[in-house]
UniProtKB/TrEMBL annotation:
Pfam families membership: RmlD_sub_bind
NCBIfam families: rmlD (TIGR01214)
Protein's pathway: Carbohydrate biosynthesis; dTDP-L-rhamnose biosynthesis
CDD domains given in the database record: dTDP_HR_like_SDR_e (cd05254)
PANTHER family cross-referenced by the UniProt entry: DTDP-4-DEHYDRORHAMNOSE REDUCTASE (PTHR10491), METHIONINE ADENOSYLTRANSFERASE 2 SUBUNIT BETA (PTHR10491:SF4)
Keywords recorded for this protein, A-Z: NADP, Oxidoreductase
Protein name in the entry: dTDP-4-dehydrorhamnose reductase
Superkingdom, natural source: Bacteria
Gene3D superfamilies in the cross-refs: NAD(P)-binding Rossmann-like Domain (3.40.50.720), UDP-galactose 4-epimerase, domain 1 (3.90.25.10)
Family classification: Belongs to the dTDP-4-dehydrorhamnose reductase family.
Its biological purpose: Catalyzes the reduction of dTDP-6-deoxy-L-lyxo-4-hexulose to yield dTDP-L-rhamnose.
EC number: 1.1.1.133
Organism: Streptomyces caledonius
InterPro entries xrefs: dTDP_dehydrorham_reduct, NAD(P)-bd_dom_sf, RmlD-like-bd
């Protein structure tokens, strides 16, 4: 672990991309844990600006990088611009953390993997992105590994949903107020992950890193179990008091999009044990807890009343 003298007494955490769904939840989780933190959104910090990044990281103990280019389809025609944010800027941030003696928790994605497996991907599985977005995120992962071999943590997540921002679960509940039935893809497999559950684990990982208990490297921040998008939609409806049979299965071929999606995004979670931490809970358990949040209950109420929000 780093012993940079300028960071010896630092206690503050920095969350980049703090205005996004996960960023907001990380700030909430830090507050719940009694940890002092600063959140900077895109309008507060240009992570492609080295001088601004160095200034932001100064006297910070842990940086949680939630800032990213997240437009998967848009990256297909703007890969250079996406790489500037998901790759080049991550190297800038890692270099600033190295100079300040800060730990970096960088959020990555299942899209760095080829998606053609039949068993959960281990953390050390060979990468092989199938789209531009995955390639840009892999550049970021490589930067963290190269610049911060002892203080860099790459946490891959997938199928994130939460109370803040646009996501699949919220969309399904909104559409329930507008349509009698929905066709949802049933041939892509993954692990629906509640953003606040991931946020809590990120805080625990950062604390373990500061305590010298968590080895650097790749961790998989996804829920336990597995399902399909149709399975997730049906369970969200069931838990919200809606008829799950309103969700009908279809195939990926029915929704052709610019970027290819991995067919199999199930990740293994062995490395959490090395940090002395349990893996995230099963996706059913996470979803049941998430749907009690006010934002989701309001959407469910509107759907049951047949009203759009």
């Amino acid at each position: 672990m780093s012993t940079h003298p300028g960071n010896a007494s630092a206690r503050r955490w920095l969350v980049t991309g703090a205005a996004g769904m996960l960023g907001q939840d990380v700030l909430t989780a830090l507050k719940d844990a009694g940890i002092e933190a600063v959140g900077l959104g895109r309008t507060d910090l240009d992570i492609t600006d080295p001088a601004a990044v160095r200034a932001a990281v100064e006297d910070v103990a842990v940086v949680v990088n939630c800032a990213a280019w997240t437009d998967v389809d848009g990256a297909e025609t703007a890969e250079e611009a996406a790489t500037a944010v998901n790759g080049t800027a991550v190297r800038v941030l890692a270099e600033a953390c190295a100079a300040a003696g800060a730990r970096l928790l960088h959020i990555s994605t299942d899209y760095v993997l080829p998606g053609d497996a039949s068993e959960p991907y281990r953390e050390d599985a060979a990468t092989g992105p199938v789209n531009a977005y995955g390639r840009t995120k892999l550049v970021g992962e490589q930067a963290v590994a190269e610049v911060l071999p002892q203080d860099g943590y790459v946490v891959r997540s997938a199928w994130l949903y939460g109370e803040h921002g646009h996501n699949f679960v919220a969309t399904m509940l909104k559409l329930a107020a507008l349509r009698d039935s929905l066709d949802v893809v049933d041939d892509q497999h993954g692990q629906p992950t509640w953003s606040y559950a991931l946020a809590r684990h990120l805080v625990a990982l950062g604390q373990a890193a500061l305590d010298g208990k968590a080895p650097a490297g790749v961790y998989h921040g996804t829920a336990g179990g597995r399902t399909t998008w149709m399975g997730l939609a049906r369970e969200a409806y069931r838990l919200s008091g809606l008829d799950p049979e309103r969700i009908r299965p279809t195939t990926s071929d029915a929704y052709v999009r610019p970027a290819v999606r991995p067919a199999f995004s199930v990740l293994g979670h062995d490395r959490w044990a090395e940090a002395g931490l349990p893996p995230l809970a099963d996706w059913h358990e996470q979803l049941a807890e998430a749907l009690t949040a006010p934002g989701f209950t309001a959407l469910a109420d509107q759907a049951r009343d047949g009203r759009a929000g």
